[in-house]
Amino acid sequence: MNSLKRAKELDQEYHFMNAFADSLDSGEGRLKGYTVSVKDNVCVKGVQSTAGSKVLEGYVPPFDATVIAKCRAEGASILGKTTQDEFGFGTFNVNTPFNKPLNPHDPERSTGGSSGGAACITAVADFPHLAISESTGGSISCPASWCGVVGVTPTYGRVSRWGLIDYANSLDKIGVMGKTVKEAALLLSVISGPDKYDSTVLDTPVPDYTELESVEELKVGVPKEYYGEGINSDVEKTIWSTLKKLESKGAKLIDVSLPHTKYALSSYYIIAMAEASTNLSKFSGLRYGLQEHIEGDFNQYFSKIRTLGFGDESKRRVMLGTFTRMAGYRDAYYLKALKVRTKVIEDFKHAFEAVDVLAAPTMPVVAPRFDEIEELEPIQHYMMDILTVAPNLAGIPMVSVPCGTSEDMPVGLHLMADHLQEHTMLRAAWEVENL
Amino acid sequence: MAEIAVTRELVKELAKAARLVLSEEETDKYTQQLSVILDAFKELDEVPTDGVEPSYHPIEIKDSLREDKPEKWEWDPLANVKDHEGKYIRGPRIK
């Protein structure tokens, strides 16, 4: 059976796709034989790309994002678009009018978000498959952890963002998911590196990340702020059991402190919402996606389209982002958040003087049930990201690697490394995978 | 951070600036939610940041320039426009 047909069968059960390609092309190269699914906010030529939003319903990109062109050049078959929270605004993949994926380990629970579809198909695919996903504040790590797959978020600027439907430009990173560290490393090797269409991409040479071997005397930092209060004790127990096994293999565990961790959440949300509110101003119903019969003046028409097209969370973030950039409040909110970000980055830089990687739980709990999510207030949604926002704010690479279970649900170990130290980080993750 | 009272008037002003139309019910809901969220953000006041530079990007971004010469797009920028005449997109009337 071909992978397109099989994926459609699986999608009937798990609802991880928003759109399929009409047919699968393939070719020669490092990704020959692999089917690659793509988060809905990364443009694929000829396949509807909505970023999970009604405001982009019907939008069919006439071009491929750079990462897609790179995958095709290495022989990959592009499957189609995986479901996500609208524009990436969410932690449970429930903030979307389109498909809401079910957790493969328990269909009453969330896959996590925002790259929920990507993690779900990565977990259930029984054919060679890799996923292009994207993280702004934890959207790769969270669903990877809750679905029990490997999710890699690279350094900010490691991978071209050209063809990505932006959420927050200083935070967005396109990354990858796979069943194993080696497979995720393969896709990362393919999509990393310079692009003339994205001036923020770093020109540092790309190593072959699939060359995985043990790191001698690996120094693993254990940041005290990522443990204890607010973290489910059984999840923490699973993490500690993994760290102890790593130690028995020769790794050195070192206590470290990242004192501004507590403030990362507010800093992150202020910056992300400010950038999102400017990015979303382009959705005006004239050039792509939702377009209605034109009547009234510009303001009336734009307001009509945006009111119809944006979901509840998008409206909330656009208004909050508008507020934090407003004259009179800009310095107190937006500028302050950017300064706190500097302190968060300094924390990490200081820690990496003494350790190779930092290790923590990816998420404070296992995947919640949908009925539990319904009870949460918006602020409680945001607080779920407490462990993933700081590394995303600092633009450092991170990987969530499965390391056991709690309540029969997968638990992910989060490894974080200094800017551009993906290779050491992936080697450490490979070591965890092989414990 | 200055003490900020999130009122229905402020929420209406934000919605107008963001080109959104809110129902009365939505205005009430967002007034309550924005108040809780903005109140939580105030914790940043606890961090001393005098003399700290803001990080607009997480890493240093170098200027990247290329030769200023025209390039032909291989794709049609009007491919997704429903209402256009030739290469002109139809928009609402300017009063």
Work out the helicity level of chain B: 25-40%
Helix-strand topology string of chain A: HEEHEHEHEEHEHEHHHHEHHHEEH
Q: What's the gyration radius of chain B in Å? A: 23 Å
Distance between the termini of chain A: 34 Å
Question: Structural class of the secondary elements of chain A?
Answer: alpha/beta
- Main sheet makeup of chain B: 2 strands, antiparallel
Write out the strand line-up for the largest beta sheet of chain B, numbering strands in chain order.
Answer: 1-2
CATH class descriptor of the domain at 8-45 in chain B: Mainly Alpha
CATH architecture of the domain at 3-191 in chain A: Alpha-Beta Complex
Which geometry of chain A do the CA atoms define? Answer: globular
Q: Output the CATH class name of the domain at 3-191 in chain A.
A: Alpha Beta
Q: Biggest sheet of chain A: strands side by side, in what order?
A: 1-3-2-4-6-5-10-11-9-7-8
Walk me through the structure.
- Chain A has 435 residues and is α/β, with parallel strands linked by helices.
- Chain A has a domain at 3-191: Amidase signature (AS) enzymes, CATH 3.90.1300.10.
- Helices cover 36% and strands 15% of the residues of chain A.
- Chain A has 14 helices and eleven strands.
- An eleven-stranded mixed β-sheet of chain A has the order 1-3-2-4-6-5-10-11-9-7-8, sandwiched between helices.
- In chain A, helix 6 (233-248) links the parallel strand 7 and strand 8.
- In chain A, helix 7 (261-279) crosses helix 10 (331-351).
- Chain B has 95 residues and is mainly alpha-helical.
- Chain B has a domain at 8-45: Histone, subunit A, CATH 1.10.20.
- Chain B is built from two helices and two strands, in the order H-H-E-E.
- Chain B has helices spanning 8-17, 24-41; strands spanning 84-85, 88-89.
- Chain B has a two-stranded antiparallel ribbon.
- The longest helix of chain B has 18 residues, at 24-41.
- The two termini of chain B are 41 Å apart.
- The interface between A and B is large, with 74 and 56 residues.
